[in-house]
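Quick one: co-fold with NDP.
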Amino acid sequence: MFKGILIEKSGAGQSALMAQLNEADLPDGDVLVDVAWTTLNYKDALAITGKSPVVRQFPMVPGIDFAGVVAESDNSSFKAGDRVLMTGWGMGEKRWGGLSERARVKGEWLVALPDGLNLRQAMGIGTAGFTAMLCVMKLKEQGVTPDKGEILVTGAAGGVGSVATALLAARGYDVAAVTGRSEEAEYIKGLGAKRIVDREEFSGKGKPLAKEQWAGAIDVVGSNVLANVLAGVKYGGTVANCGLAGGMDLPTTVAPFILRGVTLAGVDSVMCDRVKRVLAWQSLARELDLEKLERMLNGVSFDVVIRTAPLMLEGKVRGRQVVPVSGLVS
Ligand code: NDP
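Sure, here it is.
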């Protein structure tokens, strides 16, 4: 038996509790992992609180990522004792996830822990940081290089935004960071942002086009904020969007696309192909300043994850929420 968070559904709705689970309950897969660290991501908070229909089948162990040590393997790429990480592939949505002391998964979904990161750091980065790197890679693919001008990052005090700010600054971009929390300004500047922009400037219904200001943007918010960001992107620029922290709608017009050639590029980490995954993790291990990563991390004990989830949805947590499951670091 081992501990895990379980989301159950009954006539009264869904609820999450810490449960004793059995290995026989785990889904099929060819690799059994002892989970060392996991994280609380925005999507996990949606799943745990039931605020959004993230969970597709019940009962469900939430947790869209984990890092740990292989306990048993029938997959030729992994053996007992290997240090691995996993994000996405429907974990915590359609398949039991990482908020559990043990997880059984398909070996093809696992990524070997990259050199230069320990298990805790890997989950400090987690899905949010991995997605931030995918966004940074997307801007580069689109030709948005540091010489083109300032890059806007929304939700900058959150998980994706914090890592994106640090990664962009490390690559030599000038970052303008949008936040609704002025008290986090010094934290965000410490990650490398050149200036802070008040979220209020983006929250209202904006015009189809505004002054051209940014060469590109990484947006985690959606809704009015994304619409206003698009309106202010320079000719030929790109916005990489991966999130909906402000809403799923997008009240914009085609003006930025047809008059300024702006690209809105979607970023998904869940089904991202394996080659890109490995590349992104290697780049993270190489480029992310681990001292800055440390500043982003908040330890959330496994036992208080359920209570922390609503705070995350209220935008009250900063950076990345790392959860020691076994607490093994190396
Ligand atoms: P966090 O909760 O850590 O950060 C989200 C940030 O967004 C907050 O810190 C806040 O930043 C800002 N924010 C929150 N609510 C609002 C609001 N109502 N209006 C405007 N801004 C708001 O979440 P993550 O960084 O982990 O995730 C961010 C988004 O990205 C989520 O929607 C998540 O689901 C999505 N995501 C998508 C992935 C993918 O594969 N596509 C993978 C990972 C995440 P501040 O206080 O600085 O303004």
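If it helps, The radius of gyration is 20 Å.
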